[in-house]
Amino acid sequence: MKIVLGSDHAGYELKEYVKSLLAEMGCTVVDVGTDSEASVDYPDFGVKAATLVASGQVERGILVCGTGIGMSVIANKVKGIRAALVYDLYTAIQSRKHLDANILVLGGRITGKDLAGAIVRAWLDTSFEGGRHQKRINKIDQFEKEHPGEP
Ligand code: RB5
C-alpha cells in the first residue's frame, strides 16, 4: 500500500517512528515532511498530504501534530478526505469499518509509540463494511458537491 505521511514539529518524532513501522510492513511511504523539530505550521503539511490522497496518487495518509486536532481540521477541508483523529484502538477500527477513513490522524504529544503502532496496524488491517455506511458517505460526498466553497 502507498501511504503519505506528514507532520509538524510536534508530530515529527512520532511520524518518523510510524515511517519505520510502515517500511517494516512493506508499505511504500511518501513523506511530505516536516523533517525536523524546528517549528512549522501544520496546515502546510496537512494540505500536501491530503491532496495526494484526494487525487488518488496514494491510497491512504497518516498525519501527526501535537494533539492531532489541527491536522484533522485542515485535512477534512480537502474534498474527498475523511480524516479520523484517533487516540485508541476502538476508534481506529471504527473509523475504517464505518467511515472508510482515508487519513489517520495521531497526536504526537498524546499517543505513545507502542499504542500508535498498534493503532496504525489496526487501521491498515481493517476493511470498510459498506452497506448502510456507504449510503452515509454518499451523503457527505453529495454535500461536498452541492456546497463547493460555502461555509
Ligand atoms: C503546535 O504547537 C500545536 O499547536 C500543533 O501541533 C497541534 O497540536 C495543533 O492542533
Write up this protein.
This protein has 151 residues and is of the alpha/beta class. The protein has a single domain, classed as Sugar-phosphate isomerase, RpiB/LacA/LacB (Ribose 5-phosphate Isomerase B, Chain: A). Helix content is 46%, strand content 16%. It is built from 6 helices and 5 strands. A 5-stranded parallel β-sheet has the order 2-1-3-5-4, with helices on both faces. Helix 4 links the parallel strand 4 and strand 5. Helix 1 crosses helix 5 and helix 4 packs parallel to helix 5. The protein is globular. It starts with a strand and ends in a 5-residue tail after the last helix. The model has no long low-confidence stretch (mean pLDDT 97). It binds D-ribose. D-ribose binds next to helix 3.
Question: What share of the residues lie within helices?
Answer: 40-55%
How would you characterize the largest beta sheet? 5 strands, parallel
Distinct ligands: D-ribose
* Overall average residue pLDDT: 97
CATH topology: Ribose 5-phosphate Isomerase B, Chain: A
Major β-sheet strand ordering: 2-1-3-5-4
Radius of gyration over alpha carbons? 14 Å
The shape, in one word, is globular
What is the N-to-C order of secondary-structure elements (H for helix, E for strand)? EHEHEHEHEHH
Please report the number of helical segments. 6
- Return the CATH class: Alpha Beta
Question: Could you give the count of β-strands?
Answer: 5
Poorly predicted sequence stretches spanning 5 or more consecutive residues: none
What number of structural domains do the residues give?
1
Query: What is the percentage of strand-forming residues?
Result: 15-25%
How would you name the CATH homologous superfamily? Sugar-phosphate isomerase, RpiB/LacA/LacB
What gap, in angstroms, lies between the N and C termini? 34 Å
Helices and strands: which structural class?
A: alpha/beta
